[in-house]
Amino acid sequence: MKKNIVKIEIFLCLWMILCLSGCGLKANPTPSTSAVPPGQSDKKMAVSINENAIVLTWNFLDPKGEFRYINIERSRLGSAGNTCRDCPRTFERIAQLTVRSDQNEYRFSDSSVEKGNAYSYRLKICSEIGVCRESQIVEIDYK
């Protein structure tokens, strides 16, 4: 009888260890985002400095009319030469442009930047229901 109780106790301990050591929740679920599919972006986003602003230019072609707006997001990386490029970034939306079927070249000037800082930018191209696709991230030192 004692042997059966010991076996049951061992089984229950192993079962509890397996249950408690599951993969668990890594992060809150988020809607899937991916790079803009081939054919919808002819060219990568370019970034340059124009007097007192950072200028973003890109081409975007939406032949099916799936997308409605483009969110432009910026993250400040810190002072130029003293940035943490591997640190997690917090992007904030700084502008929103409407996607037009008759336009494939877009341009945005960010004049709310400070000299001596490094910035990174990305685009989120979104459908009417809020499904978004992220572009690549570009970085620039604004000196």
Keywords, please?
elongated; mainly beta; 1 helix
What does this structure look like?
- This protein is mainly beta and 143 residues long.
- The protein contains one helix and eight strands, in the order αββββββββ.
- Strands 3, 4, 6, 7 and 8 form a five-stranded antiparallel sheet that branches.
- The chain is elongated, with a radius of gyration of 24 Å.
- Residues 33-42 have low confidence and may be disordered.
Can you describe this structure in just a few lines?
The protein is mainly beta and 143 residues long. It has one helix spanning 2-20; strands spanning 43-50, 53-59, 67-79, 92-98, 105-110, 117-127, 132-134, 138-142. Strand 1 and strand 2 (53-59) form a beta hairpin.
Q: Which strand-content bin applies to the residues? A: 35-45%
Write down the Rg.
Answer: 24 Å
The largest sheet, given as strand count, sense and whether it forms a barrel, is: 5 strands, antiparallel
| Count of beta strands | 8
**Class from helix and strand fractions:** mainly beta
**DSSP helical segment count:** 1
On the 0 to 100 scale, the average pLDDT is 80
Given as residue ranges, the uncertain stretches (5+ residues, pLDDT < 50) are 33-42
Q: Note the overall shape.
A: elongated
Distance between the termini: 81 Å
Order of helices and strands: HEEEEEEEE
**Into which percent range does the helicity of residues fall?**
10-25%
